[in-house]
Amino acid sequence: MMQSKIEIQCPLDTEIPEYDYSNWNINDANFQQCNFDFTDFFNNFMLKNLPCQIKNVTDNWKCARQWVKGDQINYDNLIEEYGDLIAPVADCKNIQFNSQCKSDMKVHQYIEYLQNATDNRLLYLKDWHLRRSRPDDKFYEVPPYFILDWLNEYAMDNKEDDFMFVYIGPKGSWTPLHEDVYCSYSWSVNVVGRKKWILFPPGEEDKLKDRFDNLPLVFEPEKFQNIKYFEITQEAGDALFVPSGWHHQVINEAQTISVNHNWINACNVEIVWKALEKCLIIVEHQIEECKGTPEFPAECQLILKSHFGMDFESFVTFLCYIAKKRLSQLQGNTQADFNQYTLGKSIIKFDLKNILKVLNSIYVHPIFLNTDILSSKEDEFIQVRKDLRAVFSFCK
């Protein structure tokens, strides 16, 4: 007998509140999965852009059984299952241009390195698209809190690079201070091992920048005064939600494997848009000597895509795709399925309302009004915006 799907809903009048990080405390944001549901997460953390940690997330994960032996990494299983695959590896001791140098290794070579106690290198396998390499290997399940994921929905529908990663690192391996790609959300689940995170509420990172507006590679508390930050220890089975704009750095305190996603949805799409807009202003300032030339707008978009990962055209393409898909789902033409979950109409309308809000901002932006940067998307953009306006005009 087929199991009925669980419908995800939100209150019809849901609005995104003003963000207030002043009273957040990890002690008030630490939950057991059995006592914490989607509505709790949606209302108290995702909407408010606040971190939280959820325990025992991996209880039913295949990889938590196969990749772990006792409380250690099961080297033999990883070599047997994935040994001939190639993964990116960062050298934590080799820093150039303020980042860790990267190369590719076969997975069996990396696991053999991990097993060699006398190897004094500090190598961190990271950003490994294992799910893309093995799409039929259901080695983990996306926790229900994190299923509203436009970024990976778009990537999978359009057969583009996803934002789903596996990390494997020895004790002492680390990720530099950074903000996640596109100013997106991220979630991280430890399959085995332990991580220490340092998180900074949005705006605190500005206090760390040098006179050239660069962040340090690593935050060292003794070198800075009056910085608000939080230290979080993530154990095996824990999921950590990192909201948009929260800069962070991570160190593995034991040999660790984690699964990580970056994601965007209606709760943070306006943050992403404002970050994209801000990055364009920075780029325009960097090459302002070219301002006034016919090539200036296109050159800015090229640099913007290099710095931010998206330009205005790719962002509009992304928004229009999700909007059209949700409009179709609202009309009942396609099923809005996410594994054992389905989207209720209230969530679909919440998605559409917040896409429309961002499209309205783009509609009055100088890039749309004064350049031809979005000319290839203009007809689609105007039609989607018109369709969304009709939905909410009808609702009134």
TrEMBL record:
Coiled-coil regions listed in the entry: none
Gene3D superfamilies assigned: Cupin
GO cellular component, one term: nucleus
GO biological-process terms attached to the record: positive regulation of translational termination
Catalyzed reactions: L-lysyl-[protein] + 2-oxoglutarate + O2 = 4-hydroxy-L-lysyl-[protein] + succinate + CO2
Residues annotated as domain JmjC: 131-280
GO molecular function: 2-oxoglutarate-dependent dioxygenase activity; sequence-specific DNA binding
Family per record: Belongs to the JMJD6 family.
Name recorded for this polypeptide: Jumonji domain-containing protein 4
Organism of origin: Mythimna separata
